[in-house]
Amino acid sequence: MRTEEREKPVRAVVFDMDGLLLDSERLAVESLGLSGQELGYELSEQFRHSLIGMPADTCRAMAVTAFGPDFPLEEFFRRHETVIARLVDDGRLTVKPGVTELLDELDHRGIPRAIATSSNRVRTRHHLGAVGLADRFDAIVTRQDVHHGKPHPEPYLTATAALRADPEFTLACEDSPNGLRAAHAAGLRCLLIPDLIPATPETTGLAHRVYPTLYDAIDYITTANTTENCRTATP
Asked: Average pLDDT for residues 105-124, to the nearest whole number?
């Protein structure tokens, strides 16, 4: 924590999606288990959790390492997309606490915002549409829009470029270690709001702040931007 420092104003925000805006990671863990069972494989909860926050290509490599070259990779992930879409269509997907209020605050302040997600375009559009958030972002960067996924900084650099934002004055919000590493490498301040993966000494050290919910991000932005206004008004 660096509470003694004056905060730089927040002029843009880039969000992760799964586990940060959407309570989707639990559905993903459930879907991975169901998809494996349909194909005769038991995926341990530990293994399923290890896939959280990983790009799809990394998940595929991890599955082959865990189950061998005969693992029906493409069929497994095809079923996973089908199962998780069904869970979402059944009304199981919800937004995380503070999301709507934070987006309303950004609207009020005229602060542009983007998503940088490891999910593919189809899943991203489907999930955002299911919870009524599809039209609330100025840019959406998916795994298919970059050459390198998280923890590489490219997703965050691409998102800030789409917003025409300066990384120095752009805030990232993340829930996973890989996403945090990507935002940090891109030069963004990152608020870590852990979901299924708890904060560690490493992630706490990389994060600008660690908060329990996105409600705290509202307070952070209010304080940072109010501090800027006070400095501007000072003779």
From this structure: 96
